[in-house]
Amino acid sequence: MTAKLLYRVVAVVLVLFTAGHTFGFLSFRPPSADGLAVFAAMGNVRFTLDGGSYTYAGFYTGFGLMVSAYILFSAFLAWHLGAISSTQPQTIVTLAWAFAALQIVCLVLGWLYFFLVPILFSAVVSICSVWAAWLLGKANA
């Protein structure tokens, strides 16, 4: 297995993760009456911040889309790391380990706050990212 191939796997998994996350959070509707009441209240309760009027539903949507954008950027970064891993491994080792550390943090957060599917996506991404960073570090030794 090469670092390039591992980063390509990471990129593809992250694109799929982005699609699933975006579709999932935009289409999610709570299955219980209590959950539906909270969900409705998020859209109905307004608050003022810095002169603007906002809802919690707007924040939920905005932050959800920001997360999708960051996951998609991570996919681009993984693809780019793969592209330069075979020609300039010494220049990206630090970035590769920082990227791997970020993926581990996301895995831990997924484990603490989410369900099986995002945990599995994060696990694959974390394992491949750590493996690729290790290969790059080994190539520099």
Question: Helix and strand layout, with pairings?
Answer:
Elements: H1 3-27, H2 33-44, E1 46-49, E2 52-55, H3 56-85, H4 89-113, H5 116-140
Helix pairs in contact: 1-3, 1-5, 3-4, 4-5
In short:
With 141 residues, the chain is mainly alpha-helical. The chain has helices spanning 3-27, 33-44, 56-85, 89-113, 116-140; strands at residues 46-49, 52-55. Strands 1-2 form a two-stranded antiparallel ribbon.
Distance between the termini: 18 Å
By DSSP (H or I, 4+ residues per run), the number of helices equals 5
Q: Roughly what percent helix?
A: over 70%
The biggest beta sheet reads: 2 strands, antiparallel
Number of beta-strand segments: 2
| Helix-strand category | mainly alpha
Order of helices and strands: HHEEHHH
Question: Unreliable segments (pLDDT under 50, ≥5 consecutive)?
Answer: none
Average pLDDT taken over every residue = 96
**Strands side by side in the biggest sheet:** 1-2
- Percent range for β-strand residues: 5-15%
What is the CA-based Rg, rounded?
19 Å
Instruction: Note the overall shape.
Output: elongated
Structure keywords:
5 helices; 141 residues; mainly alpha; two-stranded antiparallel sheet
Written overview of the protein:
- It is a single chain.
- A two-stranded antiparallel sheet has the order 1-2.
- It has a domain of 98 residues.
- It has 5 helices and 2 strands.
- It is mainly alpha-helical and 141 residues long.
- The longest helix is centred in the middle third of the chain and has 30 residues.
